[in-house]
Design a protein that fits this description.
By secondary structure, the protein is of the alpha/beta class. It folds into two domains: 83 residues, Orthogonal Bundle (Methyltransferase, Methionine Synthase (B12-binding Domains), Chain A, domain 1); 120 residues, Cobalamin-binding domain (Rossmann fold, 3-Layer(aba) Sandwich). Helices cover 58% and strands 12% of the residues. It contains nine helices and five strands. It has a five-stranded parallel β-sheet, with helices on both faces. Helix 1 packs parallel to helix 3 and helix 6 packs across helix 7. The longest helix has 23 residues.
Length: 209
């Protein structure tokens, strides 16, 4: 029988071998889909620990990236048991680093953590022009649009993108993230929320879902 608390702690401690051993043994017991969903929730609980430790300065960016990869691995192990998960998608997020900015570490961490939290993420990559966000939003009808940027100039690009989305009548929540974003820049851009922490960003999105 899988001890969910042990699994949560193993994910939180980034103990890859322990997590995979626990899940492999669990899958061999032919668990029900409901049991497998509980295991996913336990893994997500471990990610919350990772996020908290990152906020406290005990974990670093590399740990966040590793945690996202570990969670993806865990979900992939459970996928055969989870069956058809189409109905379990928390929502679609369109994500991209805005025009003029080529940084993607923060975006990639947020993507991994969002997917692990049950979101479908459409990653547009880096240096994404406002019209590409608009075009994809029309195509995907996302619940949330996430914009990332590290450079100060990214703030202007974010504003251009939000203005273009509003002009096109796109009705989605907008979250911006990255080093230069602040409460003031969020208001300037016209976004709904901002974050400088991927784990916090996922919590915001979960509150919207």
């Amino acid at each position: 029988m899988l001890d969910l608390k042990v699994l949560t702690q193993a994910v939180g401690d980034l103990e890859e071998e322990d997590v995979l051993d626990l899940l492999n043994e669990f899958v061999e017991t032919n668990p029900t889909e409901a049991d497998a969903q509980e295991a996913v929730v336990a893994c997500q609980g471990g990610m919350a620990i990772v996020g908290d430790l990152f906020e406290k300065g005990e974990y670093f960016v590399g740990d966040l990236i590793f945690a996202g990869e570990l969670l993806t691995e865990a979900i992939n192990l459970l996928k055969p048991v989870l069956g058809n998960q189409e109905n379990a998608v928390a929502g679609t997020i369109i994500l991209g680093t805005v025009h003029g900015d080529l940084h993607d570490i923060g975006k990639n961490i947020f993507k991994s953590m969002s997917e692990a939290a049950g979101f479908e993420v459409v990653d547009l990559g880096i240096d994404v022009a406002p019209e590409v966000f608009v075009e994809k939003a029309k195509e995907c009808n996302p619940m949330i649009i996430g914009m990332s940027g590290v450079l100060t100039l990214a703030i202007d690009s974010m504003k251009e993108t939000v203005d273009a989305l509003k002009a096109a009548g796109i009705d989605a929540k907008v979250i911006i993230g990255g080093n230069p974003v602040t409460k003031e820049s969020c208001e300037f851009v016209g976004a709904d929320k901002f974050t400088t922490n991927a784990a916090e960003g996922v919590k915001i999105c979960q509150a919207w879902a």
